[in-house]
Amino acid sequence: KNQVEQSPQSLIILEGKNCTLQCNYTVSPFSNLRWYKQDTGRGPVSLTIMTFSENTKSNGRYTATLDADTKQSSLHITASQLSDSASYICVVSAGSGYSTLTFGKGTMLLVSP
Amino acid sequence: EAGVAQSPRYKIIEKRQSVAFWCNPISGHATLYWYQQILGQGPKLLIQFQNNGVVDDSQLPKDRFSAERLKGVDSTLKIQPAKLEDSAVYLCASRRTGDYNEQFFGPGTRLTVL
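^ Those are the sequences you sent over. The predicted structure of the assembly is below.
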């Protein structure tokens, strides 16, 4: 069964600090992995996408890594801002064509002033 | 480019009542998804359409949930009759055909069943 596990479940950090969110997956066959940011009351928005051959991808202060061998990904947020407070969801796509997505439960990040 | 539109944004009903949600995907997006997101959890796929055909509805509780996408554009999701455990946010998403194309999500409809 395809699964995506995220940790921690929630996290509180001070504004300006860095943090790293983790994602472990058992999805086969692997196609790609996305990190989404979901603000309260909004739909998820894609931050990064990585395919099997990519091991790092940046989007501003967000940097995602992928280790396809250990089936782990991380999302590193640098110099956090209050607007980073949101849920971060790891989503792994299996196969091709219609692509079945497996969602993690998300990590709730709160950036405190 | 306009995003995915959903309505209503909020709905409160009593159990055993019926409710319907509407989604207008991004123009040109052949694939449309309906997800259920319970508080504190990731979205759970209910149904996936490719144009006006159903690709995956394996997790749709078909005794009470139904969805259609007539003409391959707009879609409606209906719950009849609603149960307390249906309280959730219902997200609609769409994407262009292609392996790596991003799903774009609408703002969701927050349903509260009393």
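The interface with chain A takes residues 4, 31, 40-45, 48, 50, 55-56, 91, 93, 99-100, 102-103, 105-108, 110 of chain B (CB under 8 Å). The longest strand of chain B covers residues 88-95.

Shout if you want it in another format.
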